[in-house]
Amino acid sequence: MQIIPSILAATKEEFVGKVTEIFSDTEMIQIDIMDGKFVQNTTWGTPDEILELHLPVLFEVHLMVENPEEVVGDWVRVGAHRIIFHIEATKNPGLVIEKIRPFGREVGIAINPETPIAALSEWLHLIDYVLVMGVTPGASGQKFQSKVLAKIREIKKIRPGLKVGVDGGVNFDTAKEIAAAGADAINAASAIFEYPDPEEAIKILQGS
Ligand code: DX5
After folding, report:
1. Does residue 61 contact residue 83 with C-beta atoms inside 8 Å?
2. C-alpha to C-alpha distance for 133 and 187, rounded to whole angstroms
3. Cβ 82 vs Cβ 106: under 8 Å
4. Which residues, judged by CB distance below 6 Å to any ligand atom, belong to the binding site of ligand 1?
5. 75 close to 61: Cβ distance less than 8 angstroms
6. pTM greater than 0.90
7. Is 128 among the catalytic positions?
8. pLDDT of residue 4
9. What confidence tens digit (pLDDT) does each residue in 139-181 have?
10. Spatial contact of 88 and 115, defined as CB atoms under 8 Å apart
């Protein structure tokens, strides 16, 4: 199972500090983007601000924003390896996919704990990744909702080759349950950055 540290930062200093702590221990980071509308919080980092950092590691973006069709083109332009938008945030998922796919970037759709997998059925054959949310998005450090484990199995049954990640509430214990349910990747923020040694936390998660 791949471990992808989530960078959720309110300021540039926080963002750079977190990336500096872990970039040499991971293949890819996830940048959390919050717009204050789809979720209450906001985060630091426009596409151009991220571009200026010349990040030393691959990155994906988890767009917790309304109308992602308006911004995905910018994330393609600045080199996001994978772009993940929320099925709940757009009236036109097909348009969002069309704005990412031709450019050779991976397309992911995130799904909130309350949203059924049926909401994705029309799109599963057009995407590379499903991000199953283990918490209602908006904040780090929430408790994992075990009911979402069934979604991992459900997706793998419908499309065995589709990669599934899990985000929110991942810790050393829940990571084991998520791995057992068949996920390909997990995102973790507090389990890594609130552990005394983030590099060791990544290793422990990798052993799940
Ligand atoms: C949830 C965010 C997550 C968050 C995870 O709102 O989408 O990416 O950073 O934080 P933890 O790992 O602390 O639950």
Report:
1. yes
2. 10
3. yes
4. 6, 8, 32, 62, 135, 137-142, 167-170, 187-191
5. yes
6. yes
7. no
8. 98
9. 999 999 999 999 999 999 999 999 999 999 999 999 999 999 9
10. yes
Angle of helix 198-206 versus helix 12-22 axis, rounded to 10:
60
Residue with the nearest Cα to atom 3 of ligand 1? 168
Both tokens of 101, joined, read 């796919």
In the chain, which residue ranges form alpha helices assigned H by DSSP? 12-22, 47-52, 72-77, 93-98, 149-158, 172-180, 190-193, 198-206
- Rounded CA separation 68/39 (Å): 13
Q: For residue 24, give Cα distances in angstroms to 36, 75, 128, 194.
A: 31, 23, 25, 18
Q: Give the Cα separation of 76 and 72 in Å (integer).
A: 6
Q: Which residues, including other chains, have CB under 8 Å from residue 128's CB and lie 6 or more apart?
A: 82, 106, 107, 108, 162, 163
The residue contributing the CA closest to ligand 1 atom 2 is 137
